[in-house]
Amino acid sequence: MSADDDHLLLGAYVLGGLSESDRRTFSEHLRTCRQCQGELGQVSGLPHLLDLSDPDAVDGLADAGGAGSPPTAGVVGPGSGDVSSLVTRLARRRRRRRVWAGVGAAAATVAVFALGATLGPALLDPEPPTTHVVATAAGSEPVRVDVALVTRGWGTQLDLDCEDLPRDGELLLYVTDAQGRSSSVASWRATPSGYSRVTGATALRPDEIRAVEVRTSSGQVVASARTA
């Protein structure tokens, strides 16, 4: 793929829609592309916002009054069908609204990507300073962890994009400061695919972090990177 093609993968990357091979390709591209690193910082919160926009208030009513359920006796009105039919129509209308809401959310996402390069600074808050490092495997396994250190007023936000991690057990993210002191800033369960996206936080500023490590619960270092 060309460099321009790699840029086009950013939207699907944020929304988790890439295949395994495309995700690897884009992860390689992200290591060196300042444009994609900047745009990723602006829209990395979109999947969480889309997750919050999926209410399910009517499905229970549809199940109670849908096809196959007995009609509700004695509760009818002039010119209308029974309550079961009314609830079914209401559920269908609700589903149509959700479909259009999904279309609107997708359109909004496309608009953010289209305008991000030129109008982003005018429409969004200023992008916080971000440093990217890649933690490489400590052993022979092909582990790979992209780490974004995002400057915040309270310290540092650490966004991890991990591939080929151990498939079971608990994993932890550690940071080491200039005095050599290490502290855990995130923990998560391993996934069957070895792929994880994790966010951690520390009171240390990015310039106070000297190294990041992913460890197992037993203390074995899986991947590490120097930041300075």
From TrEMBL:
Residue ranges, annotated region (Disordered): 60-83
Leader sequence residues: none
Pfam families: zf-HC2 (PF13490)
Statement: the UniProt record of this protein carries the keyword Ribosomal protein: no
Domain of life the protein comes from: Bacteria
Residues that span the membrane, as ranges: 99-124
Keywords, alphabetical: Membrane, Transcription, Transcription regulation, Transmembrane, Transmembrane helix
Every Putative zinc-finger domain range: 8-37
Protein name per UniProt: Putative zinc finger protein
Lineage: Bacteria, Bacillati, Actinomycetota, Actinomycetes, Micrococcales
